[in-house]
């Protein structure tokens, strides 16, 4: 009886080892074809190519909380960040480019040349709006960071110093 039990146990063990080898071999054959693609977010700005073609505004990347927006047609710019440049950019090709901040903070990497003023999205010092930090550079490679209050317009580049060099806006960071 013990001999029969040992024979069955040895046969079962050998069978399991054989099946494991076949399954392992099949698993290695399928390999990369069965794997899902990597889901790494690169933070590229969605629709950037169309915005560049249509509006001459280069949006590079961001966290999705500062979005490209239509500029208001009147004087009421509350709720939008307005960037002004001497270049013919924006949906109206008049040098005005606008953004909205969705939430309490956000960041956007972009490239808008010849910027001379940036207006935040608030109305007054006590009202709602976002503080901004703008990163700019000149053609000579001189970088600067400008703090922009949550309301009003801040002159940058030739807007701040008419004898200075034009500046390219590289990044906007918004906080509440």
Q: Which structural traits does this protein have?
A:
176 residues; alpha+beta; nine-stranded antiparallel β-sheet
Structure description:
The protein is an alpha+beta fold. It has one domain (48-175). 23% of the residues lie in helices and 34% in strands. It contains 2 helices and 9 strands. It has helices spanning 2-34, 48-55; strands at residues 58-62, 66-69, 81-85, 96-101, 106-119, 131-138, 143-148, 153-155, 167-175. Strands 1, 2, 3, 4, 5, 6, 7, 8 and 9 form a 9-stranded antiparallel sheet that branches. The longest helix has 33 residues, at 2-34. The protein is globular, with a radius of gyration of 29 Å. The termini are far apart. Mean pLDDT is 83; it is low at 16-30. It comes from Amycolatopsis balhimycina DSM 5908. This is Secreted protein. Keywords: Signal. Residues 1-24 form the signal peptide.
List the helices and strands and how they pair.
Blueprint: H1 2-34, H2 48-55, E1 58-62, E2 66-69, E3 81-85, E4 96-101, E5 106-119, E6 131-138, E7 143-148, E8 153-155, E9 167-175
Antiparallel strand pairs: 1-5, 2-4, 3-4, 3-5, 5-8, 5-9, 6-7, 6-9
């Amino acid at each position: 009886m013990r001999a029969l039990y040992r024979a069955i146990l040895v046969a079962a063990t050998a069978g399991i080892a054989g099946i494991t080898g076949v399954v392992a071999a099949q698993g290695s054959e399928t390999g990369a074809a069965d794997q899902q693609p990597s889901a790494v977010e690169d933070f590229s700005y969605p629709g950037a190519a169309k915005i560049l073609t249509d509006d001459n505004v280069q949006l590079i990347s961001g966290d999705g909380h500062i979005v490209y927006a239509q500029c208001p047609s009147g004087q009421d710019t509350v709720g939008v960040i307005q960037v002004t440049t001497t270049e013919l950019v924006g949906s109206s090709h008049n040098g005005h480019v606008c953004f909205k901040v969705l939430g309490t903070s956000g960041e956007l990497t972009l490239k808008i040349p010849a910027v001379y003023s940036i207006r935040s999205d608030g109305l007054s010092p006590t009202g709602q709006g976002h503080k901004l930090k703008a990163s700019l550079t000149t053609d000579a490679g001189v970088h600067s960071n400008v703090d922009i209050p949550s309301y009003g317009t801040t002159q940058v580049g030739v807007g701040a110093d008419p004898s200075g060099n034009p500046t390219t806006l590289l990044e906007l960071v918004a906080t509440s």
